[in-house]
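Comment thread on ticket #2218

A.B. wrote:
> Attaching the input chain for the structure job we discussed in standup.
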Amino acid sequence: MTSSAWFRVAAIGMFHYLALSATAEAASPENEWPQFRGPGALGVADGANLPDRWSATDNVLWKQAIAGRGWSSPIVWGDKIFVTTVINTGESEKPTKGLYFGGNRPKPPETPHQWKVLCLNLNSGSIVWEKTVHEGVPAQSLHLKNSYASETPVTDGERVYAYFGNLGVWCFDFAGREVWSKPFEPHATRFGWGTAASPVLHAGRLYIVDDNDEKSFLVAFDAKTGDEIWRVARDEKSNWATPYIWQNDLRTEIVTPGTGKVRSYDLDGQLLWEFSGMSSITIPTPFSKFGLLYVTSGYVMDKLRPLYAIKPGASGDISLQEDETTSEFIAWTQKQAGPYNTSPVLYGETIYVLLDRGFFAAYDAKTGAEVYKQERIPEGRAFTASPWAADGKIFCLNEDGVTFVIKAGPTFEILHTNSLGDDVMCMATPAVAGDKLLIRTDTQLYCLQQGAKLAAE
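C.D. wrote:
> Ran it. Output below, let me know if you need it in another format.
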């Protein structure tokens, strides 16, 4: 997430709102991490003085138990943290860590679940308010490692928008009052794996991609009222990639990665360009810098695991031929660089790619040239959370709750290894709030801060 600045002065009012919701590459002020991977969806937080060493107690300001299961990321505005979770009133099967087959669960649970939105105090971790938006038996099944709260909420500084796939979207003000809600018709997903794509905001509109195996679409809502502005059908099956608002020198676009095609739409929902050539499962979130858009996917069983850099101004079908790696609007391609679950992080002029099985590689963001080949993270095991960057370091959190701190630069070097203890599972991507780092485990939300010490329990 980017270190670029959104001005906090209230007098600029609407300009402030539009700039923030646009995910532009402008610097974010302290304590604003409003969406998945923060401002610009870049995962970068320079100058925050974040700790680069910690344990389950050292440099831990507080931890707060979060009931239920949810792999959504926390988001932050000012002194407020927002997070979602879903509580099974019966018993939930505990997932196994790591990449594996056999996690399909074709039948939904038969016990009632509670879908919740929580607001926590950033400084203390105390729960400010908690709202149950729905209670009932889930209409759709899940992969064992997924959750019914895998979509990260988003905020514009006045309201928070919580989207639960196959259920609906809820808008609350910061005091916890419901402003509006919209139910979603449930649709079957590939192998019953469930949903995960998070909503995005831009210029007073909320955009949601619902790619499923029955009736995929992209929809735009008025963020203030919840009125539907437009909806376009998509010739896609199930995907799990969060869309991206690409503000380039020519126009603003809504970029939607997909297994069938990557597509870009204008702000009225009209198709601008598209291309095929992704892997068979598409999860990572796009991002942009240096006038280029970066799109990737990398299912581990596929030969094609591409990382693309796209130039602005394209129209129509810009798909590459099989032997091509560049064209008029595709600046470069690395055909086997893409990650499966994690989104890459662009830091400085380098794209760092964390692969789910514990490999790490670096590429020049402007040219696509290999900075260094895939390096094994010793005992890294499985990674699902996306990496983040700060103060010359890349942070990689694995499913065991261990964070590997890697030196940014032209050579691979692990600086530190930090563990949150045994019997911890981490799949949610962390968030940054000023000098605080928020890490969500399967049961707790940790707030890390330099010099803090968690009291013994």
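A.B. wrote:
> Thanks. Noting for the ticket: The chain has one domain: 4-453.
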